[in-house]
Amino acid sequence: MGTPGEGLGRCSHALIRGVPESLASVEGAGAGLPSLDLAKAQREHGVLGGKLRQRLGLQLLELPPEESLPLGPLLGDTAVIQGDTALITRPWSPARRPEVDGVRKALQDLGLRIVEMGDENATLDGTDVLFTGREFFVGLSKWTNHRGAEIVADTFRDFAVSTVPVSGPSHLRGLCGMGGPRTVVAGSSEAAQKLLAHALSPLSQAMAVLTDHPYASLTLPDDAAADCLFLRPGLPGVPPFLLHRGGGDLPNSQEALQKLSDVTLVPVSCSELEKAGAGLSSLCLVLSTRPHS
Question: What is the pLDDT of residues 217-260, one digit of tens each?
Fold first, then answer.
């Protein structure tokens, strides 16, 4: 069966999309916050790209911004990728569905096997899907329904797929993420803790029978701090990285993150992009195998 984290393969490429001026007019999850500073959001996005390329050693592919797609930079919602397979999602919002077109072409050009969601009754945002290295959790949320989760299971038949309810306006990865090969991190809110308990309690009991390495969990003061990316770079001899929100964004969670001793912490900021509803994991797609050129 393997151990948790084995399926979190070594990464070679990252895909991002530039920030259009139209993003400044979007009112996302940060309703009630000051208006978005476009220049700052673009700087944050540029720093993220630089960290992916220079610090993590990934080959960075950047799609150009499109003014007709103000939420285009949130391309983590547009695909679920594992190995050489990419499931192109069907976002809950009809206005966001054209975002998948450029992503589909980029992934096709990289040689991935493309799977489409042909069922018009299905909705799926990619940030409602968490791959642990061993199985998938799919959050049933405002954005993703049961049929969308079924298509994830049909697409990735080599892995178990479990559904977990997500309360409130968040996506699953806005409340929890992988903090290491065997560690799930979650925020401290009631919604995050309910999600964690629902996902891990029955699973931990089953895994204790199958392996000596059940999942551990770590609670962070801020829900947004759990929206992180555990990455194994493709460079030989380089330890795994955890791309996470830095202290300037979420100072209360930094001490807890230091407990993750088996990863190299790489902080980035997306406090401005967050005003348009962006979480860290929504801002890039990472490929865990070397696709065909």
Answer: 999 999 999 999 999 876 667 789 999 999 899 999 999 999 99
Query: Mind spelling out the 3-state secondary structure of the chain?
Result: CCCCCCCCCEECEEEEECCCHHHHHCCCCCCCCCCCCHHHHHHHHHHHHHHHHHHCCCEEEEECCCCCCCCCCCHHHCEEEECCEEEECECCCHHHCCHHHHHHHHHHHCCCEEECCCCCCCCECHHHEEECCCEEEEEECCCCCHHHHHHHHHHCCCCEEEEEECCCCCCHHHCEEEEECCEEEEECCHHHHHHHHHHHHHHHHHHHHHCCCCCEEEEECCHHHHCCEEEEECCCCCCCEEEEECCCCCHHHHHHHCCCCCCEEEEECCCCHHHHCCCHHHHCEEECCCCCC
* 80-92 pLDDT tens trace: 999 999 999 999 9
Catalytic amino acids? 171, 284
